[in-house]
Amino acid sequence: MEMTNAQRLILSNQYKMMTMLDPDNAERYRRLQTIIERGYGLQMRELDREFGQLTEETCRTVIDIMEMYHALHVSWTNLKDAAGIDERRVTFLGFDAATEARYLGYVRFMVNVEGRYSHFDAGTHGFNSQTRCGRNISGC
């Protein structure tokens, strides 16, 4: 990632402010500030990863998965006798943060920012299922 000195100074100041605004992640912001200020080329590539992209097709696929789990859970709730079906099998657990972080981020955006699927239980891990579900989402 190539940046002018002015861009580096602006970004460094942003990380400094983030350190003060978000003490829980202050160490991370200090590290990024140091990388920017000193121009460590190898580590600056990490910043590129911060600016990911999900295609429209991938976003729609993630929404389709969430819609499917919504329909499954509604159907399960409407069953007269659901005793033979474990609720966890029809509950949206999310995506694995280690291998599906981009999808997980989109789910969190949809729920926390867009206000959709607020009825889904984020659990203690915020939709991090902590297990790869094996979904192959094209367009990634």
UniProtKB/TrEMBL annotation:
Pfam families (alphabetical): YfbU
SUPFAM superfamilies: YfbU-like
Signal peptide location: none
Superkingdom, taxonomy of origin: Bacteria
Name under which the protein is recorded: YfbU
Organism encoding this protein: Klebsiella pneumoniae
